[in-house]
Write a structure and sequence with these properties.
With 308 residues, this protein is an all-alpha fold. Helices cover 74% and strands 3% of the residues. α1 packs across α9 and α2 packs across α9.
Length: 308
């Protein structure tokens, strides 16, 4: 692999990792604070992408569409929490899985009804179009660099909010000892609602920034949800720092692995076969990583403080 290709793949891995973090951050808080298995979290990613598409066609302005999409994703998450999720808090995990899986099916079909089954795309905003030279031989899209910067900015804001505010203190306490938080008189339902809303908005924001890069289609959040669960298991349930570190690791391993595995299998297999076998082997790497970490650190790399 040339140095130029390595740099491109590293940047692509960082960009993918940042999107994973935006999804996993809300998921790890919901799972850590509430012990709630929300399989429908990935649908919020899809909702954000479709909202961006709809608002862009209504307003003609990407930035206004992004803002409206985030606000709507927040409102939609709070609506789901009020109408459906809060009735499942006291139920067992099987009920939560079945209910949220039903939401996935419903919203995927609703997306087909409203927007059709065809793949949609969004143009890159003019301000972030084009590319910049990183080396004499390499130019990289400005928009992809901006998505990396946006992810880092959100990670910093989350770190400050969770680590240095009263609400963040309650979230951290809820992630480790939720019974104690409730016993101290904290309105635990309101705390749950805040966590759900923030998680939904972050997942929607990930969908907004992913829309100009990836295809917008029904079911687009299903596969990324599986990877997001891998991220929170590797990083430690309830840990924002762990989710950030694990998202970067998974993004880089997944992206670099596809290139390296294809090149490695190409040494012993014909090119036509290595192009198929390489990506298949690469997709296994993140699950091998997760299994290895669970063996040596069952609570994840950076578990929430106080987690047993």
């Amino acid at each position: 692999m040339s140095l130029t290709l390595l740099l491109i793949q590293c940047l692509n891995g960082l960009q993918y990792g940042m999107m994973l973090f935006l999804i996993a951050a809300g998921l790890t808080l919901v799972f850590g604070v509430m012990g709630f298995i929300n399989l429908a979290h990935g649908v919020q990613y899809m909702v954000g992408a479709y909202l961006a598409f709809a608002f862009l066609h209504l307003t003609g302005n990407f930035w206004l569409a992004a803002l409206l999409s985030m606000i709507t994703a927040l409102a939609f998450g709070l609506l789901l929490e009020h109408v459906i999720f809060r009735h499942l808090y006291g139920r067992d995990h099987l009920d939560q899985v079945l209910a949220t899986f039903g939401i996935i099916i419903f919203l995927n079909e609703l997306a087909k009804v409203l927007f059709g089954p065809a793949t949609l795309s969004l143009p890159v905003p003019e301000l972030l179009s084009g590319s910049i030279p990183l080396t004499p031989e390499l130019r990289y899209p400005v928009y992809r660099l901006a998505t990396i910067g946006a992810g880092v900015l959100v990670a910093g804001l989350l770190y400050l909010a969770v680590g240095h505010t009263r609400v963040g203190m309650l979230i951290r306490a809820g992630a480790t000892t939720p019974q104690m938080v409730a016993a101290l008189g904290v309105n635990i339902r309101r705390l749950f609602m805040v966590v759900f809303g923030v998680g939904a908005m972050l997942a929607g924001f990930a969908g907004v920034i992913a829309a100009p890069i990836f295809a917008v289609e029904p079911g687009m959040g299903d596969n990324i949800l599986i990877v997001a669960f891998v991220v929170i298991i590797i990083g430690g349930i309830g840990s924002i720092r762990g989710a950030f570190l694990a998202a970067l690791m998974v993004g880089l391993i997944d992206t670099l692995g596809r290139t390296l595995a294809t090149q490695a299998t190409g040494l012993v297999l014909p090119p036509s076969m290595s192009d198929q076998v390489g990506p298949a082997l690469a997709s296994m790497l993140i699950y091998i990583l997760m299994a290895a970490i669970l063996v040596f650190r069952p609570q994840g790399l950076l578990p929430a403080k106080g987690a047993a």
